[in-house]
């Protein structure tokens, strides 16, 4: 019922709400029930490139619908973060001076970081290494050679070294995406590949290793059809156990394929009977 809120002296409620629950029961199929413990949201959009100049990292995320899935061993292979290489919007105008200072300056550890792990570029070994003691903080003053994680360090510094040595990392075009790794269901992966081209000249693969040669993405197909259980043949009857009229013997069979997606379950896997020929006690 609606009331005229402008009416003089009106103090009645104009709307009401109450809690309600959806019915969960017969409409929930087996496929939905099986994936529910590890169910995730759709992927977010990819984040902006981590650098405005040169090569950086972009990532997207998804989240468990059920927070308890973080502690469920069944969900350990579910990927919640996907990272890709990207190029900053101003890559065509890049200069390497900033990266040279970051990668070639002496690393300085700052002990005011409460144990956060960070990385620096070791120009001698030409590799990204963790600061000793997990103690370094983000860049302050001269503390330029300092990266949030190993991937950021390798992306920036390997790219800088390749540019400074007049190297390039020519790549073939990406291949078409592969078929989904599963024929039905939600937990498939598909891949695409590319290769490093040398164009009849030397290419230092070490300096190009930060460029991915393979990309993956999830793929979701229609629900899998029901699959009935399949069992082996019965074994031969065992020897009689006991004696007299109470002596029994058993036989067994094993599941060759378990039922899935609401298929017919396995029947009994063990049978027992009284011995047909009683053994005198």
Number of helices: 3
**Helix and strand composition category:** alpha+beta
CATH fold-level name of the domain at 167-226: TSP-1 type 1 repeat
Strand content: 15-25%
CATH level-1 class of the domain at 167-226: Mainly Beta
H/E element string?
HEEHEEHEEEEEE
Share of helical residues: 10-25%
The N- and C-terminal alpha carbons lie at a distance of 88 Å
- Major sheet strand order: 1-2
Q: Would you mind describing this structure in some detail?
A:
It is a single chain. This protein is an alpha+beta fold. Among the domains are: 167-226, TSP-1 type 1 repeat (Single Sheet), CATH 2.20.100; 229-258 and 270-281, no CATH class. It has three helices and ten strands; from the N terminus they run αββαββαββββββ. The protein has helices at 30-35, 97-104, 150-164; strands spanning 55-61, 81-87, 119-122, 127-130, 188-193, 214-219, 230-231, 248-252, 255-257, 270-274. The strands form five sheets. A two-stranded antiparallel ribbon has the order 1-2. A two-stranded antiparallel ribbon has the order 3-4. It has a two-stranded antiparallel ribbon with strand order 5-6. A hairpin with a 4-residue loop joins β3 (119-122) and β4. The longest helix is centred in the middle third of the chain and has 15 residues, at 150-164. Residues 1-9 and 21-35 have low confidence and may be disordered.
Name a few traits of the molecule.
disordered N terminus, elongated, 281 residues, TSP-1 type 1 repeat, two-stranded antiparallel ribbon, alpha+beta, 10 strands
Compact overview of the structure:
Helix content is 10%, strand content 17%.
